Amino acid sequence: MFEKKYSITKENIKMHELNGLKVKIIKSTDKTKKITGKIIKETKNLFVLETKKGEKKIPKKEIEIEFQIKEKKIKIEGKKIMFKPEDRIKMLWRKKND
């Protein structure tokens, strides 16, 4: 029950902690930002990814990002998650549980 309630899904990924997730930048206004890596830090406006070539800062407003969750791929426009991580999580959990 606990695992099912708190598992990351397409419907609730925006209200979860994203640090540690493997991602692929599938669209970007900057072609050099189409990379794959793991989120190691998130701020209101950007992700910091750990890649094979080191850390890369990726502005959220410029990208579409694909998350790999088990065998599923979930795509989100970066503009839709441009909040401080703690504010995004609190706000969306409240909306869901009201």
Structural write-up:
This protein is an alpha+beta fold and 98 residues long. It has one domain (2-97): Roll (SH3 type barrels). Helices cover 18% and strands 40% of the residues. Strands 4-3-2-1-5-6 form a 6-stranded antiparallel beta sheet, with no helix packed on it. The protein is globular and about 40 Å long. The chain starts with a helix and ends with a helix.
Helix/strand order: HEEEEEEH
Helical proportion, percent range: 10-25%
Largest sheet: 6 strands, antiparallel
**Count of β-strands:** 6
Strands of the biggest beta sheet: in what spatial order? 4-3-2-1-5-6
What is the CA–CA distance across the termini? 21 Å
**Contiguous uncertain segments of 5+ residues:** none
Oligomeric nature of the chains:
single chain
- Can you tell me the CATH superfamily? Ribonuclease P/MRP, subunit p29
CATH topology: SH3 type barrels
In the CATH scheme, the class would be: Mainly Beta
- The number of helical segments is 2
β-strand percent reads 35-45%
Number of domains: 1
Structural class per helix/strand content? alpha+beta
Mean pLDDT: 88
Shape: globular
Rg for CA atoms: 13 Å
Could you outline the blueprint of secondary structure elements for this entry?
Elements: H1 2-6, E1 22-28, E2 36-42, E3 46-51, E4 54-59, E5 63-69, E6 72-77, H2 85-97
Antiparallel strand pairs: 1-2, 1-5, 2-3, 3-4, 5-6
